[in-house]
Write a structure and sequence with these properties.
The protein is α/β, with parallel strands linked by helices. Helix 3 runs parallel beside helix 5. 36% of the residues lie in helices and 31% in strands. The mean pLDDT is 89. The chain has one domain: P-loop containing nucleotide triphosphate hydrolases (Rossmann fold, 3-Layer(aba) Sandwich), CATH 3.40.50.300. A hairpin with a 4-residue loop joins strand 3 and strand 4.
Length: 193
């Protein structure tokens, strides 16, 4: 809460300084907002999540959610979400052999993974307030759940309404549908192989 409070105070202070400058100089301002949408895409295991994590590490601005694979016995057991900027890790989804990690019965099944609905809600409730003052939003593994208006869909819609820069990770096979569903036509695409 202290981080959020100080972040909001800093945003408000900056807005006030800009307003006062133009008020004192009796100048009119026209705001032109340029939003950059970047989608990192590729096939399964092409390095989309690693690319986004390395990008965030080199340019740690904004807020969002990245994904990290959970490996057990040399097999993918599921994914954890990594909340930005706090770097808090939460179990997001697991394969049938590792459902105990989710510690909930409130789940959504998509393909071979079972997702924790409560983890989605927690991530959304922690990230939305940060989006109010962020100029960049990171979201990894946008997929079929979001196409069905579940998962991170409410958060992505909110980020789009906030007019912040978007840095997104999407599997190549879902890219056209995600672009259409969320109206991301004016995007830059980074295709990994």
């Amino acid at each position: 809460i202290d981080i959020l409070t100080s972040h909001i105070k800093a945003c408000i202070a900056t807005i006030c300084e800009v307003f006062l400058y133009f008020y004192e100089h009796q100048e009119h301002i026209a705001l032109i907002l340029v939003v950059m949408i970047t989608i990192v895409t590729g096939e399964k295991d092409s390095g989309k999540s690693s690319y986004l994590q390395n990008w965030y590490t080199s340019d740690p601005v904004g807020c969002g959610i990245l994904s990290q694979k959970v490996i057990r016995n040399n097999l993918v057991a599921g994914y954890d979400m990594l909340l930005l900027p706090s770097l808090v890790k939460m179990p997001l989804c697991r394969t049938p052999n590792h459902l105990e990690d989710l510690q909930t019965t409130d789940t959504i099944t998509q393909g071979r993974f079972t997702f924790s609905a409560s983890t989605f809600q927690e991530a959304i409730s922690q990230t939305m307030p940060l989006l109010l003052c962020s100029d960049t939003f990171w979201l990894d593994e946008i997929g079929q759940l979001e196409l069905n208006n579940a998962g991170y869909a409410p958060l992505l819609h909110f980020a789009i309404m906030q007019c912040c820069n978007l840095r997104l990770g999407v599997r190549l096979s879902l890219l056209p549908d995600i672009i259409e569903r969320f109206d991301l036509h004016a995007c830059q695409i980074i295709k990994l192989s």
